[in-house]
Amino acid sequence: MPRTTLLRRPLSRALPIAATVGAVLLAGPAVGSASAKAKHTPCPTVGKTVAKGYGPNVRVWREGTTLKACSRSPGQKRYVRTLGVWTSGTKVVVDEGSVAYTTTSQSDEHGVVDAIDVYDVKAGKRWFSTTHTAIVPDTSAPTTDDRVLKLVLNHSGVAWVTSRGVVNLGARKLDPNDEFLDVPSLPFRVGRQIFLGDAGVAGAAGVAKGLSLSYGGESDDCGGVQTYEVNVPAFGTSAATHLTYGSQPTAIDHEGCNA
């Protein structure tokens, strides 16, 4: 089992008061005024709910074998999307307006395998997709296809562990020049998909229990930086891994900050 160490107008003549009031009363309430709140259609309630998320509100459901999603914030319009195919083996997680889900297929080489897609429901765009869920740096054992045992998701990334214990991360954005990036000793990556470790079949369930994504960083009254982090629990002889895979500056509009 390999051990991997990874590294915010002109005036017009006034009408008499009585005439003005009378005109208002005769006219009645304004129709379509700017102050009137627009009514928007809520998300559909059809089908069987598969997952829900909040901030914004997201509902994922299936209609037969079709997987769909809707995002809607209070007082705003809804966004309804068709994601893909649903099967009994599909895994779905929702967080911060995005949906990550697996699609199962049959591989001649590896048997039943999963692909992963991550979709921003409001934007209507996929921001990560892979058909190879188990990339590893060992070219003599290219276990590039597998079943997904556990998925975790937030706005900046998706991480998972496969049934054979391979741990990977898909970053929404990956800037190799990011000064906060823990990549000097990064063993292997394909595009924005990063190999985090191989716990083997025996360690897969343990990693699934502790795998998580989080935010970190530092700031003061004028802002700072928010970092995107993935946490892999210890397995076998490998120590727990805490990897920063991206960052974003934050700013606070505070008097004196730009002086």
Q: What's the short version?
A:
The chain has 259 residues and is mostly beta strands. The protein is 8% helix and 44% strand.
Mean model confidence by pLDDT? 82
Q: Order of strands side by side in the largest beta sheet?
A: 9-10-11-13-12
What coarse outline follows from CA principal-axis ratios?
A: flat
- Which percent range describes the beta-strand content? 35-45%
Number of domains: 1
Give the termini distance in whole angstroms: 55 Å
Q: What is the CA-atom radius of gyration, in angstroms?
A: 25 Å
- How are helices and strands ordered from N to C? HEEEEEEEEEEEEEHEEE
Protein architecture, described:
The protein is mainly beta and 259 residues long. Helix content is 8%, strand content 44%. The strands form 4 sheets. The chain has a 5-stranded antiparallel β-sheet with strand order 9-10-11-13-12, with helices on one face. A hairpin with a 3-residue loop joins β10 and β11.
List keywords for this structure.
five-stranded antiparallel beta sheet; 259 residues; mainly beta
Layout of secondary structure:
Blueprint: H1 17-27, E1 48-53, E2 57-63, E3 66-72, E4 79-85, E5 92-95, E6 98-107, E7 111-120, E8 125-130, E9 148-153, E10 157-162, E11 166-171, E12 189-190, E13 193-198, H2 200-210, E14 212-220, E15 223-232, E16 241-251
Antiparallel strand pairs: 1-2, 2-3, 3-4, 5-6, 6-7, 7-8, 9-10, 10-11, 11-13, 12-13, 14-15, 15-16
